[in-house]
Request: fold
Amino acid sequence: VDKGKGGHLEGQDNVPFQAEPTITIHNRLLIVIGLLHPVTSILPAFASTSGAALRRASTISSRRLANLDNPAALEAMSFQKIFDKDLAVSEPNPAWFGNGPNERSPTWTNANWLKSRFHFSFAEYNNPRNSNYGVLRVMNDDLVQPSRGFGAHPHREMEIVTYVVNGELSHADSMGTEETLGRGSIQFMTAGTGVQHSEHNRHPSNPLRFIQMWVIPATRGLKPNYGSMQGSKVESMRRNAWAHLVSDVKNTSASTPVEINQDCNMYVAELSAGSSADIKVDAGRQAYMLCMEGGCDVGGAHGDATLARHDAAEVVGPTSLKVTATHQEGAHVLLVEMKGNGDGSRFR
Reply:
């Protein structure tokens, strides 16, 4: 385990309190636990990228299927923006996760202890048309109040990768691991046959923000495993360039700090204002992009698109993207790349 700590503090989301969803703690836990038992046959395996093969794949959006013989239309659909306003937002009762009543503090202006943005169906957000993107089953963007967190809870049959955007994330699990990680760090777990863990913001005054991703594993029944990468060790790698941080454990051609049990790659770039970094998504591959901080312009076969903080995008290869930081504070961008041809797209 590579231990790390420290980090920067981000601005908060100063928004009015949203009423709790009409769902009991029991039902919420049942919904979340239901996600821990994925059906491994959700996604098709593509032997080729021919039109005939794609037409046999039910998870390809009908828009792409209808334009398989129209290269210009496919290029236009190679990058499809997802606006922050269209993400599901959850602000659950603090007691559900072992926390006391909500409290105000000088460094926390939100009314609730947690604000989660769900990119795919999760907990009380249930949308059958938006349950995954390829093997990416969950992407939750969590902002956590100081001295709060998620008590011990179970996971199984998932590869769980968590990227720390700001603050300090403290982890403990049933395998005996305990550590705290700071900005730019990654913690990952093979939940496999079953594991319990907790996640907390132990800092007394600084908020914590992290992106948690669940990736459907290539193999079920794996032995639980935990690992991490300290963000400070790759800070120079991600500065004005794409740092390849996560790859498939079976991919002998890649050398990354983190390896998971799926054909899935993760890249991160921290761009200063005006700087650019190029990245390619090959044919038969797809990616999910998230602008975590700042703002950027993304140019490619689709034309140009602008992503602000919390905006995301579906990307389908083949395409080459130039990401340029347009915000005065730069841009902090995450890309999750995997096999597929737009599998599970919400744009249908």
Summary: DSSP finds five helices and 21 strands in the chain. The helical segments are 25-35, 51-55, 62-65, 71-76, 235-238.
